[in-house]
Amino acid sequence: MRRSIWLTSLTLLLAAAPALAESPDGDAAAGREVAKRWCASCHDVTGHQAHVQPDVISFPEIARLKGVSMDSLIAIQSMPHIPMLDLDLSRRTKRDIAAYILSLKAK
Ligand code: HEC
Given 5, 67, 69, 98, which residue has the most CB atoms within 10 angstroms? Predict the structure, then answer.
């Protein structure tokens, strides 16, 4: 009995570990939620959104730009890309958003 409780908690710990560690690949689902909240006022972040600002490049278009990568997308987000917008996103969030944008490549 004792042993099975120990095993159960070990299993739970292992299951929780990936959620706690920062994934080098980012978490696209989390990035999508952040993007909807912080980026959707200007960008079409899904490819299906009614364009609020038609001149601004959509996320699926960004995903298909030449040379786009996890690193380049993180770097772009680290610059205040328009003067008024200086979102102070964490590195992890930038990575999540980058993962989400990259996931749109095929769409
Ligand atoms: C207030 C409007 C606005 C918001 C909010 C906004 N952007 Fe942008 N974004 C723009 C505009 C305008 C451009 C084009 C800027 C340019 O060409 O210099 C741009 C360009 C970009 C580019 C570069 C595309 C390229 O041509 O290389 C990326 C990547 C990007 N935005 C990501 C994001 C992300 C991620 C968020 C949310 C965290 C976000 N943006 C929020 C207006 C916005």
Answer: 98
Mean pLDDT of 86-94: 81
pLDDT digits (tens, 9 = 90+) for 29-84: 999 999 999 899 889 999 988 766 878 899 999 999 999 999 999 888 887 766 55
CATH of the domain at 74: 1.10.760.10
Return the best residue to mutate from 37, 38, 43, 72 for the ligand 1 pocket (most ligand atoms within 8 A of CB): 43
pLDDT tops 70 at residue 6: no
Ligand 1 binding pocket includes 41 (Cβ within 6 Å): yes
How much is the CA Rg of the chain, to the nearest whole Å? 18
The residue segments making up the domain with residue 65 are 22-103
- Give the closest residue (by CA) to ligand 1 atom 34: 39
In ligand 1, the atom with minimum distance to the C-alpha of 73 is 29
